[in-house]
């Protein structure tokens, strides 16, 4: 089963609402105006080139219930370090230790993914159980999704939302990725249908 | 008050529930709060860190426990966890601690650095479990590491600045030597020509013997001066621009130098042993000059017997070491540290001709290739000069001439090591070897 164009549009809307809330929370936490935009959303499968790159930093948060899967906030190494360094205040940026990198991006990722997943749970009216965010360095998104598939036999279509963080005239690009388990697509589609109807 | 944990582990031992005992077994701090953020459980680890037992804390609200207003946003996020079920992470970078305990084990920081996570308890939607890890040690280690790295970066920047200054000064000196020697050539040439004219025009019958001797000395001095200026110019030219490196077979280079010195070799009845030499990436002209000067010295600094010259190569992972050894008069050990400086002469001019530039040129040629050159201190007879040439162009580029000067040190490589090492030269080189001790 695949997500319809309407499903994808509805998910795009839900993610946009979620990142809007997340941006507000991030601004409160960081004490500086931060804007978070989702300029583009697309559906991919596991063979997508962007998902294969292992030169990346990811924060992953699993969710289970009527709709299950994994949500990721992913950056290239360079972008992730740049974003973390805005708040880690480390000079030079190369000295930002992975301990700090994990701390900063786990919390930022937690806020962004909470925004998105909270918006999803609200929209589909499902009571979901969420895992705590985990930080990964130099692991491809495909590999992370596969590792965390758990008991689910397969992963369905993967939703990739380009994310642009704007802080102090600096734009940093990343992606919000949601990999739904194949078994929950029917429920998701039904729930989304109820939303856009 | 019973939580879902008590439902999972309902047994009570001596009035303490299994759920509480499980929390107490955790190696990290753990507390449970209800939707009003009133503490319901406080595990042993927190009691140990704070010095406050559970029976004093249970029943207190987080607002009473941490009244500081700056924690209000943290409390707000904990409430959201209970309301939405979405977990929250509190990084030590943004929040040094959720609960301000003193640092333990004599660490540099006053207060414990904490990594905190808050999760809603499944089945207990009005409750959240807060887990706290003490990451002070990692944090302090990180700060120390950063301090050291900062010093290292500053030191590296200082070294880079000095190298840059040194390179600029060297360039200035090269430029000065080049300009000065070039400009000196013209008046010297004029002096030589005028002296020649004087010698031709003056009637040897009428001038005094002293005058004739002075003119002869003047002619010799100006010839020597021109030779000196020419050598300085040659040396300064070596110090300038980086040259294009190509594949150079050192066996060919030595053969060419032997051809160039053919007359002197024949006159002195010199005997050569040239072991197989490597092919390297380098500047053929500089390498030819290097071997020419070394072999010339071996031909020159010998008395009362035919020169014997041996050239051999040793190879390791990163570089080749080449040795040029002879049976000549040798080098006084007192001077081996100065022998590569320009204008260093160890003998009187009437004994051995030259301006003391030859080995300085050799050093320039070697350092331009990223190598180093020295006098081997344990030569069995005569003199033995050794120099290295890096195998890779990258290694050569890393060793700038400014830095390479510091490398001019004798090694402890013994003669027996050398002999064994000569066997390491590759078979392809061996096939191109010169016949042993050829005349």
Question: Would you give an account of this structure?
Answer:
The complex is a heterodimer of chains A (197) and B (439). With 197 residues, chain A is of the alpha+beta class. Helices cover 45% and strands 30% of the residues of chain A. Chain A has six helices and seven strands. In chain A, strand 6 (155-167) and strand 7 (170-181) form a beta hairpin. In chain A, helix 1 crosses helix 6. Chain A is globular and about 45 Å long. The two termini of chain A are 20 Å apart. Chain B is α+β, with helices and mostly antiparallel strands and 439 residues long. Helices cover 47% and strands 17% of the residues of chain B. Chain B has 16 helices and 14 strands. In chain B, the strands form four sheets. A five-stranded antiparallel sheet of chain B has the order 4-3-7-6-5, sandwiched between helices. Chain B has a five-stranded mixed sheet with strand order 9-11-12-14-13. In chain B, strands 1-2 form a two-stranded antiparallel ribbon. The interface between A and B is medium-sized, with 28 and 25 residues.
Name the descriptors:
heterodimer; A: alpha+beta; 7-stranded antiparallel sheet; 45% helix; B: 439 residues; alpha+beta; 5-stranded antiparallel sheet; 5-stranded mixed sheet; 16 helices; 17% strand; elongated
């Amino acid at each position: 089963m695949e997500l319809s164009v309407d499903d994808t549009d509805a998910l795009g809307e839900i993610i946009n609402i979620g990142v809007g809330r997340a941006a507000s929370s991030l601004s409160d936490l960081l004490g500086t105006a931060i804007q978070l935009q989702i300029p583009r959303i697309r559906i991919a499968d596991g063979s997508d080139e962007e998902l294969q790159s292992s030169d990346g930093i990811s924060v992953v948060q699993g969710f289970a219930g009527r709709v299950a899967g994994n949500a990721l906030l992913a950056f290239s190494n360079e972008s992730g370090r740049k974003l973390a360094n805005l708040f880690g205040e480390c000079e030079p940026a190369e000295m930002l230790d992975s301990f700090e990198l994990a701390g900063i991006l786990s919390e930022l990722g937690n806020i962004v993914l909470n925004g998105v997943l909270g918006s999803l749970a609200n929209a589909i009216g499902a009571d979901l159980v969420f895992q705590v965010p985990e930080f990964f360095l130099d692991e491809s998104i495909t590999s992370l999704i596969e590792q965390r598939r758990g008991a689910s036999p397969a992963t369905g279509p993967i939703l990739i939302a380009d994310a642009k963080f704007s802080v102090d005239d600096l734009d940093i690009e990343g992606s919000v990725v949601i990999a739904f388990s194949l078994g929950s697509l029917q429920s998701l589609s039904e729930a989304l249908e109820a939303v856009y109807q | 008050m019973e939580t879902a944990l008590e439902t999972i582990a309902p047994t009570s031992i001596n009035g303490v529930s299994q759920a509480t005992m499980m929390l107490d077994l955790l190696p990290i701090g753990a507390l449970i709060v209800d939707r009003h953020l009133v503490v319901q459980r406080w595990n042993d680890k927190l009691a140990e860190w704070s010095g406050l037992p559970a029976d004093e804390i249970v029943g207190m609200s987080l607002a009473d426990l941490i009244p500081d207003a700056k924690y209000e946003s943290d409390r707000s996020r904990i409430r959201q966890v209970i309301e939405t079920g979405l977990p929250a992470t509190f990084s030590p970078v943004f929040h040094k601690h959720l609960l301000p305990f003193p640092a333990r084990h004599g660490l540099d920081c006053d207060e414990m650095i904490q990594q905190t996570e808050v999760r809603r308890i499944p089945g207990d939607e009005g409750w959240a479990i807060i887990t706290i890890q003490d990451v002070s040690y990692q944090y302090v280690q990180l700060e120390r590491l950063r301090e050291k790295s900062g010093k290292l970066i500053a030191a590296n920047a200082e070294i880079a600045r000095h190298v840059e200054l040194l390179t600029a000064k060297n360039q200035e000196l090269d430029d000065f030597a080049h300009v000065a020697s070039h400009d000196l050539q013209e008046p010297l040439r004029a002096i030589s020509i005028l002296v020649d004219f004087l010698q031709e025009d003056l009637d040897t019958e009428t001038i005094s013997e002293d005058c004739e001797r002075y003119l002869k000395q003047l002619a010799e001095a100006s010839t020597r001066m021109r030779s000196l200026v020419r050598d300085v110019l040659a040396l300064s030219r070596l110090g300038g621009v980086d040259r294009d490196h190509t594949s150079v077979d050192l066996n060919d280079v030595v053969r060419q130098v032997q051809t160039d010195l053919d007359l002197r070799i024949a006159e002195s009845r010199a005997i050569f042993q040239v072991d197989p030499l490597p092919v390297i990436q380098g500047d053929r002209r500089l390498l030819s000059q290097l071997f020419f000067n070394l072999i010339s010295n071996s031909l020159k600094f010998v008395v009362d017997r035919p020169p014997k010259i041996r050239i051999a190569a040793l190879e390791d992972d990163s570089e080749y070491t080449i040795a040029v050894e002879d049976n000549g008069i040798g080098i006084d050990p007192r001077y081996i540290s100065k022998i590569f400086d320009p204008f260093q002469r160890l003998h009187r001019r009437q004994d051995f001709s030259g301006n003391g530039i030859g080995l300085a040129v050799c050093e320039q040629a070697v350092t331009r290739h990223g190598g180093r050159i020295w006098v081997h201190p344990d030569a069995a007879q005569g003199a033995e000069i050794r120099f290295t040439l890096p195998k890779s162009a990258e290694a050569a580029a890393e060793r700038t001439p400014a830095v390479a000067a510091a490398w001019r040190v004798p090694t402890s490589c013994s003669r027996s090591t050398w002999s064994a090492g000569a066997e390491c030269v590759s078979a392809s080189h061996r096939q191109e070897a010169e016949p042993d001790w050829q005349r």
